[in-house]
Amino acid sequence: MNLEEKCSPIVRNMPPSGIRRFFDLVNSKPDAISLGVGEPDFITPWHIREAGVASLERGMTSYTSNQGMPELIETIRHYLQSQFTLSYEQTEVMITFGASEAIDLALRTLICPGDEILVPEPCYVSYIPCVQLAGGNPVPVPTKADHGFKLKVEDLERALTPNTKAIILCYPNNPTGAIMNKEDLAPIVEFVKKHELIVISDEIYGELTYGNKHTSIASFPGMKEHTILVSGFSKAFAMTGWRVGYVAAPLPLAQQMLKIHQYTALCASITSQVAAREALLHGLPECEAMASQYDRRRRLVVKAFQDLGFTCHEPQGAFYVFPSIESTGLDAHTFAEQLLLEESVAVVPGDVFGQSGTDHIRCSYATSLESLGEALNRIERFVKKQKNKQPIHHHG
Amino acid sequence: MSAKLEHAVLSLLEENARIELDQIATMLDEDKEIIIQIVDELEKKGVIVKYGTLINWQKASTKKVAALIDVKVTPQRGHGFDAIAKRIYLFPEVRSVYLMSGSYDLSVALEVDSMEAVGKFVTEKLAPIDSVVSTMTHFVMKKYKEDGVILDEPEKDERLVITP
Predict the structure, then answer these.
(1) Where does the Aminotransferase class I/classII large domain lie (chain A) (predicted)?
(2) pLDDT digits (tens, 9 = 90+) for B4-63
(3) Which of A7, A70, A268, B39 has the greatest number of beta carbons closer than 10 A?
(4) A23–B160: do the CB atoms touch at under 8 Å?
(5) Which of 1.10.3470, 1.10.10, 1.10.3200, 1.10.260 is the CATH number of B3-44?
(6) What separation, in Å, do the N-terminal and C-terminal C-alpha atoms of chain A show?
(7) Other beta carbons within 10 Å of A163
(8) Under an 8 A CB cutoff, do A346 and B161 touch?
(9) Does A209 contact B at CB distance below 8 Å?
(10) How confident is the model at residue A199 (pLDDT cuts 50, 70, 90)?
(11) ipTM of the assembly?
């Protein structure tokens, strides 16, 4: 019996994550400094962990309601209102296993066979496989380094067909660090309304912007009914391992998503929900302090890459820089592999995040200042070595 | 200089006294000249007192013995506690002296080479001071955290090397 043939062709034909392959290579270099980690280097602040521990001591080990603990939902509603001027009813918010589950729920709720979902690239590695698993057709919409990887409405217009149902937006963006401010979003909003599309807005990095405060696309007049807002606690409060996030959507969508959630996930972990509430109630000062540290490291990293002669737009959010390594004459995979083998620094080749990430690398600055400094020194040494190897001679 | 910028410079230096000033400038998006000027001013005003190193003597090859001493004193007319505090803090083996509210007056932290040296300090130097009414000595058995830094086993970075 061929077990592989028993598997669904959608799953079989899905390539394993490009990150996975690189992961094994990095693991073979135990001394490597990794700038490849997509999560905060901070440990969850103690008062948040302590709240989780205390809930276990009190014997809180049960299921919660499918939708999530009412107190947490109430806290999230208040938070969305005060931070991003978003109004959601109690019935329109649901707690999920991280933002990842929320994205999957949104896609499975929306997609009918043949539906097209616009996915601006470079993007988080899960979007396209999740669209495919839900039976939809992902349509990559490349964004360009020249525009600081901001999404342009012209690019969306070119990709639009009668089958287009939704767009997945992720700003602040992983892997580019690009943000979409109010002015950038305005034409996208018009486009979405005109064509009656749904936006799945992954705002998991919404607390991590540098300079301008994050604008949610759902906060535009009339956009709430077009938006499924996805977010969570992982990045803002350094809570990746707790696997807790949430989704907020207009009631007709929220009700449908809740059905899938209740039959597949049942509910998010109660310990994590208690901790998440503590995070929102008392953790914002720590969140700000972490953001301010990222901001300082960000400037350091951008300057280091620019000093090396790399084209590196200044990321305005998240904790990634996405410099072009074209000037080295290497493709991103060779660059990342050689850098790892020669200098023991791990970065992620940009094409893992989509075709438009080719010739770029993603470096996370969610790394201690010490390691970051050492990694940048090693990268500099590596790039200088490459320049000496290059056959082209510059005169001047 | 803005209070915010001053605070940012101070917290970077407090974290790492050896940080380069141009690194501070880059991190705070300021000119190096301005950072030099700020640090200079803070040094002159005595806000920045000195650039030290936090040492975990428990791990060093020369061990040190630390003790905290609660001291009750009789304040002096015209000087309050200041003069007596000075008589105590001028001893080089005294690491810190605080005036406390509560059941005793001065909290004196001592760091010396041996337990005998603690006893010697208390009996020969501290207790004989006229205004000292009583002393209670507590030996430090283990330091877990000092100046905001955990000396115990630090929490490990458990993250995978590459994640999306």
Answers:
(1) 31-379
(2) 999 999 999 999 999 999 999 999 999 999 999 999 999 999 999 999 999 999 899 998
(3) A268
(4) yes
(5) 1.10.10
(6) 68
(7) 13
(8) yes
(9) no
(10) very high
(11) 0.84
